[in-house]
Specification:
66% of the residues lie in helices and 0% in strands. With 251 residues, it is mainly alpha-helical.
């Protein structure tokens, strides 16, 4: 298990199995790789035409469903109506989306492994936690909807649909669970990595929900931005202290 914060697939580091080692000491593994002359990771393989078509189909069905949900309400639109609007059969729709809730939450599926990808693609010498902090702050700067700091009308409408529908909120937790699992694998796997991943994902969720709460109350994204950055900085300091509680010698 990779407890020094190295990318999944390496050997055990010097984190001694602590949660601190899972997220706070990723520099060593990468630096040693550079010193030994290892090449940069290869670029991800290109997506096949078949896979691109499949992704487009997913998005087309989801977009049609969300438009109907926003217009009439989630509970007042049937799966049969969505299938008809997308010009497919119900069995075909369920091959793409196992549950009705997934039609609305497909947009979150793109972000399930985002934290894991950030950790896996971090800069040389950068710890996993520093990479996640940098990525979240960049998301705030560009008003990424995932950070909750976006006041575009269509995003506001979608968030109100999401948080106003109990079954969608419940289903969202399943997506967050998969995000935790992916991040834990990127941190090396095992119980301590899972604990670290759970804390990180919880922090990101709470920060986004707080940003969304303020915007839903009438503030603009620009007005919320400074406070959102401060809250994020404080959250990552608190997160680092908590995760490093087991490793007092960690800088």
């Amino acid at each position: 298990m990779v407890m020094s914060g190295e990318k999944a697939g390496g050997g055990n580091g010097s984190g001694s199995g602590s949660v601190a080692g899972a997220v706070g000491e990723g520099a060593r593994g990468q630096e040693s790789g550079q010193e030994s002359g290892q090449e940069e990771p290869a670029a991800p393989p290109r997506v096949s035409l078949r896979e691109r078509k499949k992704q487009l189909t997913y998005r087309a069905i989801s977009d049609a469903a969300i438009a109907m949900f926003l217009e009439r309400g989630f509970d007042k639109v049937s799966v049969a109506e969505v299938a008809a609007a997308a010009d497919i059969s119900k069995p075909t729709l369920f091959r793409y989306f196992p549950a009705k809730e997934d039609l609305a939450l497909h947009r979150f599926a793109d972000h399930e492994d985002e934290a894991a990808r950030v950790v896996g693609g971090r800069e040389p010498g950068e710890s996993p936690l520093d990479a996640l902090r940098r990525h979240f702050l960049a998301g705030l700067d560009r008003r990424d909807p995932v950070t909750g700091l976006c006041d575009a009308p269509q995003v506001l409408a979608f968030h109100r649909l999401l948080y106003g529908t109990p079954s969608l909120v419940a289903r969202l937790y399943a997506y967050q669970g998969r995000s935790e699992a992916a991040l834990a694998r990127a941190l090396g796997g095992g119980v301590t990595a899972r604990l670290a991943a759970g804390q990180v994902v919880a922090v990101l969720r709470i920060l986004a929900e707080e940003n969304w709460r303020r915007i839903d109350a009438g503030e603009s994204a620009d007005a919320v931005y400074a406070g959102a950055v401060q809250a994020a900085e404080e959250a990552f300091v608190q997160l680092r202290r908590g995760l490093e509680a087991e490793g007092r010698g960690t800088p």
